[in-house]
Amino acid sequence: MILEKARELGIALSESDEFINMTRTREAMEADTQLMDELNEYNAMQESIARLLTMDGDNQAEIQQMSRDIERLHDELIANETFRAMLEAQAEFQQLMKRVNAIIGMCIGAENRAEETDGGEDDEGGCGGCSGCCANCSGCH
User: Fold this and answer.
1) pLDDT tens sequence for the chain (141 residues)
2) How many Cβ atoms from other residues are within 10 Å of residue 103's Cβ?
3) Separation of alpha carbons 108 and 97, rounded Å
4) Residue-wise over 81-95: b if at least 16 C-beta within 10 A, else e?
5) Alpha-carbon gap, residue 10 to 6, rounded angstroms
6) 121 neighbors 130 (Cβ within 8 angstroms)
7) d(CA 76, CA 73)
8) Dihedral, CA atoms, 68, 70, 76, 80, nearest 10 degrees?
9) Which residues contact residue 135 at a Cβ distance below 8 angstroms, ignoring those fewer than 6 apart?
10) d(CA 28, CA 135)
11) CB-CB contact of 131 with 123 (8 Å)
12) pTM greater than 0.90 (yes/no)
């Protein structure tokens, strides 16, 4: 039963607006070859600078140049509308997952009721901050 409910939750998450938007924006990002080249270059530079920082020797000039290059690439990525949309979509889906995990945690007693929602009007379940888990509920439905 528990695994079936997990499967149902997984399906519901994959059908959520947040997941669909994240998938759509990721596909748009992956289709943009220039953006993907910049992202790959940015990631490679980050790995290179991390290696340089762990090495002994006089490599400060190289590190400074690489830091400037990374900053320039970062600015280019952030200026890209497709990239920004992907970051926003990921953040929205992560927020949904955080809320789902908080509700599960509250229902199994792993988290305090006060931590389980942000108290906003978006909380699902009704009941003034209720998580929708009725294990200890006196009833609202």
Assistant:
1) 999 999 999 999 999 999 999 999 999 999 999 999 999 999 999 999 999 888 877 888 888 999 999 999 999 999 999 999 999 999 999 999 999 999 999 999 876 554 444 444 444 444 445 555 555 554 444
2) 20
3) 17
4) ebbebbeebeebbee
5) 6
6) no
7) 5
8) -160
9) 107
10) 42
11) yes
12) no
Distant-in-sequence, close-in-space partners of 100: CB < 8 Å, separation ≥ 6: 9, 13
Residue 128 backbone dihedrals phi, psi, to 5 degrees:
45, 65
DSSP result, the chain: -HHHHHHHHHHHHHTSHHHHHHHHHHHHHHH-HHHHHHHHHHHHHHHHHHHHHHS-SS-HHHHHHHHHHHHHHHHHHHH-HHHHHHHHHHHHHHHHHHHHHHHHHHHTTSS-GGGS----TT-TT-TTT--S--TT-----
Residue with tokens 């009704």: 126
Token pair of 25 as six digits: 């924006």
